[in-house]
Design brief:
With about 400 residues, the chain is α/β, with parallel strands linked by helices. It has 2 domains: about 100 residues, Enolase-like, N-terminal domain (Enolase-like, domain 1, 2-Layer Sandwich); about 270 residues, Alpha-Beta Barrel (TIM Barrel). It is about 40% helix and about 15% strand. It contains 13 helices and 15 strands. A 5-stranded mixed beta sheet has the order 10-4-13-12-15, with helices on one face. A hairpin with a 2-residue loop joins β12 and β13. The protein is globular, with a radius of gyration of 20 Å. It starts with a strand and ends in a 7-residue tail after the last strand. The relative contact order is 0.16.
Length: about 400
């Protein structure tokens, strides 16, 4: 079997653009992958297309070998654009191999540890501004079956917070905790927005509400600063979405920088690299909770990883997505009592509709994280992409 074609698709998804790849073979078997990198989507698509000059003509079963060659011959060797492109083409090759062998991708990663994974919701807060609005939307998410909720309550604040702003932000957390009770896990997102002193102060403010973690409290560039925050934080620290090489996670683990690790499968170079990160974490008995708020193929990739990695404890998922998601892909996703099932179909268990992708072309979406409109994360007609009650979504 040989790779004969490689096509990229950049698809509008309201807050970002999905970046998909489809790889074809001379035996008619196709595989799909995703390398969505917010605000860098066109760069990733170009990087994927450049990798095609190596991949076309190759045997898609030699996945690890090809990754090593493409990594080596990039010369610069790392960076989020390259690693996201590698993740996309690796997933497509795994998808092909799983389909040919008639097994889910998790079987190619060592077999499954579980057939479902508990999820916490992101995006449940769409449109909320006041503590009361956050509280009402939190109750709706819990009623939908989620046992964990993540959100960023910090608005447009960056680096520092005055006392009044701190109180306003913490009032939102207080309102959500009061609305959902103590049995629901709350994950507080920082999006790397604070300096060390402010992050530590905010962590102490959060402690009475028993968050499961305080995520990315400071920018990702300085590990010693992250270690300093964790040393003085009364709540667990999570990070990982903006680290993209196993060596970075090795440094975080060895220096004691985090309690939860959050690699993004579509950013760290793919499933094989994520497995390495999982093994590094397992050696120190640390949980892995994949970052997973991107697109449908990335979700399929992450579910396969969650099945195959023993120390995955939570899976992030968006509560809703754009209404055309079901047109763009055919996926099999169900959510039962807060647990997302692992697809059992050969490969990744997802198919891409090229014509539907073309109907939703690239749109520029500026980053919202620090502008005060982060909660405008979904359109008014967004809807769940999964089925509940044991019935799977099929697009």
């Amino acid at each position: 079997m040989k790779i004969t074609t490689l096509k990229t698709f950049v698809v509008d998804a309201f807050r970002a653009n999905y970046v998909f790849v489809k790889i074809g073979t001379d035996e008619g078997v196709e595989g799909v992958g995703e390398g969505t990198l917010e605000v860098k989507e066109l760069a990733v698509a170009a990087a994927i297309e450049q990798l095609g000059s190596y991949l076309v003509g190759q045997d898609p079963f030699r996945i690890e070998y090809h990754l090593e060659m493409m990594h080596r011959d990039s010369y610069w060797r790392s960076g989020p654009v390259l690693r996201s492109a590698l993740a996309a083409v690796e997933a497509a090759m795994f998808d092909i191999k799983g389909k040919v062998l008639g097994v889910p991708v998790y079987e190619l990663l060592g077999g499954c540890h579980r057939d479902s994974i508990r999820c916490y919701a992101n995006g449940w807060f769409t449109g909320a501004r006041t503590p009361e609005e956050f509280a009402t939307k939190a109750q709706t998410a819990v009623a939908a079956g989620f046992h964990g909720l993540k959100w960023d309550p910090f608005g447009s604040n960056y680096m520092t917070l005055d006392r009044a702003a701190r109180f306003r932000c913490i009032e939102i957390v207080e309102a959500v905790r009061a609305a959902v009770g103590r049995s629901v896990d709350l994950m507080i997102e920082g999006h790397g927005r604070f300096d060390v002193t402010t992050a530590i102060a905010v962590a102490h403010d959060l402690a009475p509400f028993e968050p499961t973690w305080f995520e990315e409290p400071i920018p990702p560039e300085n590990l010693s600063a992250l270690v300093a925050v964790r040393a003085k934080s009364p709540v667990p620290i999570a990070t990982g979405e903006r680290y993209y090489h196993p060596s970075a996670f090795d440094d975080i683990i060895s220096h004691g920088g985090a309690d939860y690790l959050q690699p993004d499968i579509s950013h760290v170079g793919g499933l094989s690299e994520a497995k390495k990160i999982g093994a590094l974490a397992q050696a120190r008995y640390l949980p892995v909770c994949p970052h997973n708020p991107i697109g449908p193929v990335a979700n399929a990739m992450t579910l396969q990883f969650a099945a195959a990695c023993s120390n995955v404890t939570w899976l992030e998922t968006m509560m809703t997505d754009v209404p055309w998601r079901g047109e763009v892909v055919r996926e099999c996703v169900s959510l039962i009592d807060g647990m997302m099932t692992i697809p059992q179909q050969p490969g990744l268990g997802i198919e891409l509709d090229e014509a539907a992708c073309a109907e939703h072309p690239y749109q520029l979406h500026p980053l919202r994280h620090y502008k005060g409109n982060l909660t405008d994360i979904r359109p008014p007609d967004a809807k769940p992409f999964y089925r509940t009650g044991g019935t799977e979504a099929t697009g």
